[in-house]
Design goal:
Helix content is 31%, strand content 28%. The chain is α+β, with helices and mostly antiparallel strands and 275 residues long.
Length: 275
């Protein structure tokens, strides 16, 4: 790249990223975009572990790259989108970052998604949500996607005098809203501010509970400091209490590469949250 990007995308080691997610470089196409998105989502957990350990490195590309590509760790939306957007731009896709709200119109804008332009058509990419889509969805009002039994829908909605987009997932025979994003411009400092809030504000849920999720083959696992939830397409959701001492087994099952010291520290935090 000849011109420096405000998102520092020229700093990405694209080869190392593609190796980490098990992909090779390919020209932009629908098939390549789908494969990249699914590979990214499956390669990295969604989690707030570094927030709970008071060691979050921030959301600059160099910090995210060291954490995800270098260590194989995961994180939450700001980190996922910073990394995935950089990879897509280096591969020749047009990418727009957008911010959204989880939990209704009065919630803070603490979710980040990507709009990817391919052959002049926009696609919603959402690699950093707890129950993330596995592949992008056409950014069209009423668009639905059923992939491997996971069903999602997009709706255009009014937001502050403009237009926004609500992503819904099919659950128990009804559509459940996941988040709504707007079309306002997003700059790197917006993610810095959002990350500072989500990682430091005392009463935000990112600091009040463990969140650890991953797509495995045929199932999606979601852990908190209190519960285990297993979802399978077309099957009833399994939801139960997290048993004492069980967290370590799930860290292994979900392939979370924590150091020994981080495991000890996380056990302490979870014990405190459980009371």
């Amino acid at each position: 790249m000849t011109d420096a990007s405000p998102w520092l995308t020229e700093q990405l080691d694209l080869g190392a990223y593609l190796h980490r997610i098990g992909m090779s470089s390919a020209s932009p196409s629908r098939e390549a975009l789908d494969a990249l998105h699914e590979a990214h989502v499956r390669a990295f957990t969604f989690d707030n572990i570094d927030v709970l350990l008071d060691q979050h490195p921030g959301v600059r590309l160099d910090a995210v790259q060291e954490k995800f590509v270098g260590r194989g760790r995961g994180g939450y939306c700001f980190e996922h989108t910073v990394l995935f957007a950089a990879a897509l731009e280096r591969l020749g896709y047009g990418v727009e970052r957008r911010l959204g709200r989880v939990g209704g119109p009065s919630a803070p804008r603490t979710h980040c998604v990507l709009v990817v332009t391919l052959d002049g058509e926009p696609w919603l990419a959402d690699p950093g949500f707890g129950m993330s889509v596995l592949r992008p969805i056409p950014l069209v009002d009423g668009a639905e996607d059923d992939y491997g039994g996971w069903r999602y829908r997009l709706r255009a909605v009014p937001v502050g005098g403009g237009r926004g987009w609500t992503l819904e997932r099919r659950r128990d025979e009804h559509w459940e809203p996941m988040h709504t994003h707007d079309e306002l411009p997003v700059h790197p400092f917006d993610l810095t501010v959002g990350n500072h809030f989500t990682s430091t504000y005392p009463t935000i849920h990112f600091r009040q509970m463990l969140m650890l999720t991953r797509h495995l083959d045929g199932r999606h696992i979601a852990l908190t400091h209190e519960t285990v939830t297993v979802r399978r397409p077309g099957a009833p959701t399994e939801h139960r209490a997290l048993r004492d001492g069980e967290l370590s087994d799930w860290l292994d099952e979900l392939a979370v590469p924590l150091t020994a010291d981080e495991r000890v520290a996380l056990d302490g935090v979870v014990s405190h949250l459980r009371g």
